[in-house]
Design goal:
Low-confidence stretches: none
Number of strands: 10
Shape: globular
Strand content: 25-35%
CATH topology: Rossmann fold
Structural class: alpha/beta
Distance between the termini: 35 Å
Order of helices and strands: EEEHEEHEHHHHEHEHEEHH
CATH class: Alpha Beta
Strand order of the largest sheet: 6-7-8-3-9-10
Number of domains: 1
Length: 240
C-alpha cells in the first residue's frame, strides 16, 4: 500500500476574520503528482502556504512522513525535504543563475563537490540554464526565470515539492515545456509533487490525481483521468 508522504486533515486557514480554507483534507503519496484545481480565490495557494508554514492554521493537522510539521518554518521544512516554488518566481534579480543556486544550496547545507553535482543535475533538467549560468537573473526570460525558481527548489533533492502556478505568465508552449521537464525530473528521482495550477488541462495531463477546490473546500476528488472526464469539471475548468 502506498505511503502518504503528506497528509492534510481538516485544515482551516484564515486571513483575519475571513476563512480562506474551510476544512480541507487531502494526501500525497510517495512518487505521486497531485494537483489542486479551482478558480482564483478558491483557496489553492493558501493551502500551500499553510502546508509550508507561511500561514498558521486555525485548526487541523499537517503530517509530513507521518509526523506533525505544525509550527515549523519554511527554511526548516526545506532542510527536511519539503520545498516550495512560490507564485511569481521570486528569483534574486541581481545575482547570476549560479549564484541563485548557491544561495539555495547554502540553506540546505550543500557544499563543495555535492553542490557541483547538484548544479549539474539542475542544468541537465534545464539545459537553457546551462547556457545562461553566468547571466544575471533579471536578464532571463520569464520561462528561464521559472526554470531557475524550480532549479533552486530541486537543488536540495526534496522529497516533496510544492509548485504554485508554475505556468503563470508563460506562453502555452513554454508552460507545457516547463511542466514536462518537471515531470521528467520527478519520475527520475521519485520526488512527490503537489501542484497548484490555473491551467487545469495542463495540470490534469501531468498529474496522477487531483482535488477540485471551491470556496475553501474540496468538492470533487479522483484520478486525473476521472476528473478530466467529469462533465461538471470539464464545463467549469476545461472549457468544454
Amino acid at each position: 500500500m502506498p505511503h502518504h508522504i503528506l497528509e492534510v486533515q481538516d485544515l482551516v486557514l484564515s486571513y483575519g476574520s475571513s476563512r480562506a480554507v474551510r476544512g480541507i483534507s487531502m494526501h500525497v503519496d510517495e512518487g505521486e503528482t497531485v494537483t489542486l484545481i479551482g478558480a482564483n480565490g478558491a483557496g489553492k495557494s493558501t493551502t500551500l502556504k499553510g502546508i509550508v508554514g507561511l500561514m498558521k492554521p486555525v485548526s487541523g493537522a499537517i503530517l509530513f512522513h507521518g509526523t506533525s510539521i505544525a509550527g515549523k518554518t519554511p527554511d526548516v521544512l526545506a532542510r527536511e525535504g519539503l520545498s516550495l516554488v512560490p507564485e511569481g518566481r521570486r528569483v534574486f534579480a541581481g545575482l547570476t543563475v549560479l549564484e541563485n543556486l548557491d544561495v539555495a544550496s547554502t540553506a540546505s547545507g550543500l557544499r563543495g563537490s555535492k553542490f557541483r553535482a547538484a548544479v549539474d543535475e539542475v542544468m541537465a533538467v534545464f539545459p537553457r540554464l546551462q547556457e545562461r549560468r553566468d547571466s544575471l537573473a533579471w536578464t532571463l526570460s520569464g520561462g528561464e526565470q521559472q526554470m531557475l525558481a524550480i532549479g533552486r527548489a530541486i537543488i536540495a533533492r526534496p522529497k516533496l515539492m510544492l509548485l504554485d502556478e508554475p505556468s503563470l505568465g508563460l506562453s502555452p508552449l513554454l508552460a507545457g515545456e516547463v511542466v514536462r521537464l518537471i515531470g521528467r525530473y520527478t519520475r527520475e528521482h521519485g520526488t512527490s509533487v503537489l501542484l497548484v495550477e490555473q491551467n487545469a488541462k495542463l495540470a490534469l495531463s501531468s498529474s496522477d490525481r487531483g482535488y477540485v477546490i471551491e470556496t475553501g473546500r474540496v468538492v470533487v476528488e479522483g484520478t486525473s483521468e476521472s476528473l478530466a472526464n467529469n462533465p461538471e469539471v470539464r464545463k467549469a475548468y476545461l472549457g468544454s
